[in-house]
């Protein structure tokens, strides 16, 4: 995403705890900071791009962005997170700082192609201010008041995660019946699972499988009784984590859902 912003002449200051990612940001034309606080100091817009569990340190903590962000700034939360976590960020924001939720739909390939979708929740006035920034990186879907972006992302994830786990379970049955993976996937591609299979086989859009499992953890933590409200998601979360740990010493990518590397017989 950084290259798209740099090309549009925005001044970007980036921080990542992984040195290799920070180097990529520098190579793309961003200035690099030594901490989150340094990156957020003086910024008009702070865009957070982490997993939900990292939000407290990145935004709320003593060295987080909200500790240094200037009045009038906008903080954009793009994680798949929970309403509870978003409320913690909003409550921690100093006076004059607007927090907007804009979870991202789409992966690495979509980011390269400027085609991710931001599910933006917040006031229309703030959404209008963000349009010149977010539209450089993708498509903005304004979904209403603050919190709606987070809520709609979780809703869409229920269907997505069920489909991902269902794909792996279909191949579990192929294992039980001694059937071929390639033909099984080809036949699934004929019907409504076509998009799911295509996404799983797309090596140009990499994502560690554990990130999907972690997103399932986040999804289930959003409700008080997931066994009652989201029983399919509970089962799907279990199968995804089983797939993550299927092969000792191997950290599977999303594409491995379609391979023996996430089968139960490893």
TrEMBL record:
Gene3D superfamilies reported for this sequence: N-(1-d-carboxylethyl)-l-norvaline Dehydrogenase, domain 2, NAD(P)-binding Rossmann-like Domain
One MF annotation (Gene Ontology) recorded for this entry: 3-hydroxyisobutyrate dehydrogenase activity
Key words, A-Z: Oxidoreductase
ATP-binding found in the keyword field: no
Signal peptide (UniProt feature, chain positions): none
Pfam family for this entry, one: NAD_binding_2
Oxidoreductase listed as a keyword: yes
InterPro entries registered for this protein in UniProt: 6-PGluconate_DH-like_C_sf (IPR008927), 6PGD_dom2 (IPR013328), 6PGDH_NADP-bd (IPR006115), NAD(P)-bd_dom_sf (IPR036291)
EC numbers: 1.1.1.31
SUPFAM superfamilies, per the entry: 6-phosphogluconate dehydrogenase C-terminal domain-like (SSF48179), NAD(P)-binding Rossmann-fold domains (SSF51735)
Domain 6-phosphogluconate dehydrogenase NADP-binding: 1-139
Entry protein name: 3-hydroxyisobutyrate dehydrogenase related beta-hydroxyacid dehydrogenase
Lineage of source species: Bacteria, Bacillati, Actinomycetota, Actinomycetes, Propionibacteriales
Name of the encoding gene: mmsB
